[in-house]
Amino acid sequence: MLCCRGLKRVFVTGHEPLTVFHDVSLELSSNEMVCIVGASGSGKSTLLQLLGLLDTPTEGVIEIEGRDVSLLRGSEIDALRRRMFGFVFQFHHLLPEFSAFENIALPGRIARRSQSESEQKAWELLEMIGLKDRASHRPAELSGGEQQRVAVARALVNQPKVLLMDEPTGNLDRENGLRVLEILDALREQNPLAVLMVTHNPEIADKADRILTLEDGQIR
Ligand code: ADP
Ligand code: MG
User: Fold this and answer.
1) Residues within 5 Å of ion ligand 2 by Cβ?
2) Which ligand is nearest to the CA of 11?
3) Which residue lies with its CA nearest to atom 23 of ligand 1?
4) pLDDT at residue 61 in the model
């Protein structure tokens, strides 16, 4: 489904180029949940951005469904990213002036799905995350855990094949963090969904099929 070989990312900003990692190879199968752990600054977010086609590697190959991404044009990469990936970050980035329902439905409209299809999917997801009765509430009227559940639903409205999550439970208490995980489990029972999640939480990493550690610029 998703694989990379020999990935290297060098940032050139100040005087010295910074090699975040090199020779990183991994594979993600459909319906697999893999957690990435590692110290702060070890390159976890950088790796997730590369795999999600939000950034370009300095060296190495990323293949999605067998296609080498470096051979695609910009517009093809954008289309592939929209079709393949959902993103959830530590901060929910919900739009404050829109309701929970609107926040979830919006990416469907942006991807040019019909209004009825986007709205029906948004209702399904609201039910799934247990917030159907809060549909009209704006993010500020929801708790941190509820906001993050809405962010998960929003990431899923276009039915991605891979959910990329960067410390999605980093701002949540234990109970709400586990709740997010329960929702993922329930979703993955219904539809195949690969999950690649950066987390600092050992209890959550424990539930993954595999744990990868980024350390000293390498995956272990
Ligand atoms: P993590 O998510 O594991 O905490 P990051 O991937 O955010 O780590 O960052 C890895 C390293 O790359 C850090 O030293 C960070 O300062 C550096 N870095 C990340 N993004 C950039 C950038 N756009 N420009 C320069 N350096 C960056
Ligand atoms: Mg990070």
Assistant:
1) 45
2) 1
3) 11
4) 98
